[in-house]
Description:
Largest sheet: none
Number of domains: 1
Strand content: under 5%
Number of helices: 3
Structural class: mainly alpha
Order of helices and strands: HHH
Low-confidence stretches: none
Shape: elongated
Number of strands: 0
Helix content: over 70%
Mean pLDDT: 92
Amino acid sequence: MSSAEDALLLLSIVRRHLRTLARGLDSEFPEEDWGSTAQRAVEKILKAWIVLDDRQPLRVHDLADLAA
Length: 68
């Protein structure tokens, strides 16, 4: 799979997280789930960026590590 295809796959996951976040604005959605979903979306965006730069993303969830 090419870097672009990998990045597109990651971004499709981001779109799913964003749909979940939009639904999470409903008061019945558990607030603690909103933050972890937002973190996962940002994580996937950073990993897509890394992949597009032809690098292998770290297998971590820490946003600071990925951003570095």
